Amino acid sequence: MKAEPFFGEIDGKWQTEIQDNLGLPSAIWSSTTEQWLDGKELPLSFKSESGAVGRCPLRIGIVSTGLIVSGDEDGEIRHLINKKFAVVILDEAHKARADRSGKDGTRVGEKRLLAFMEKIAANAQSVLIGTATPIQLRAEEIHDLVAMLAKGANDVLGIEGSRGWASDACMGYLTGDMLWPVNPTDQWACSAILYRLQPKIQFTSGSQRRNLPTTR
């Protein structure tokens, strides 16, 4: 998904790169005509067909995040949220942000793109995010993206319900604003979350998986 308001030049570049570098065809969703289009902008589905966005005719579909930010939650967005995906890729991931308008910048909720991605991530086998600027205003925005990756993947931040300590406070340890805890139990907990937030690549053999920092 690319942060563009409509089917335009950026979406077309993604489609071209996928075809040229991987030899794979892909379809682009046009919010204007509400149909899937191929690389020559020829229709792959009927116009304004109900739920068509959730029935991509090809294995790879490109959807603008502008649809998520400005679209109708009871329309195309609903059909996407109800789908299960093998792989979801979000480019310009720093635009998926939490609402930190609370006192002292505390998190009070999610903005539309992050809320959407949290739901999509929970229904996806693998999620990849890409951004050259992971922080716009606050270091905690990195934690928001990692927490999004953790939806449906307990190996990222642990199981739901056991993350009370894995909050914005962990960023204080990363930035040096907070002193390392003295209690051994708290030390182990902090070590675990900081380890997961560190970029790491582990290559293994056989049926074991390869872990990358922005995948799960």
Record the SSE blueprint.
Blueprint: H1 9-22, E1 27-30, E2 35-37, E3 61-62, H2 65-70, H3 76-81, E4 85-91, E5 98-99, E6 109-110, H4 112-122, E7 124-130, H5 140-149, H6 154-157, H7 169-175, H8 184-197
Parallel strand pairs: 1-3, 4-7
Antiparallel strand pairs: 1-2, 5-6
Walk me through the structure.
With 216 residues, this protein is α/β, with parallel strands linked by helices. Helices cover 33% and strands 12% of the residues. The strands form 3 sheets. It has a 3-stranded mixed sheet, covered by helices on one side. It has a two-stranded parallel sheet with strand order 4-7. A hairpin with a 4-residue loop joins strand 1 (27-30) and strand 2. Residues 2-8 and 199-215 have low confidence and may be disordered.
* Bulk shape: elongated
Q: Span between N and C termini?
A: 17 Å
Low-confidence stretches: 2-8, 199-215
Count of DSSP-assigned helices: 8
Total beta strands: 7
Alpha-carbon Rg, integer: 19 Å
Keywords:
two-stranded parallel sheet; disordered N terminus; elongated; alpha/beta; 216 residues; 8 helices
Compact description:
The protein is α/β, with parallel strands linked by helices and 216 residues long.
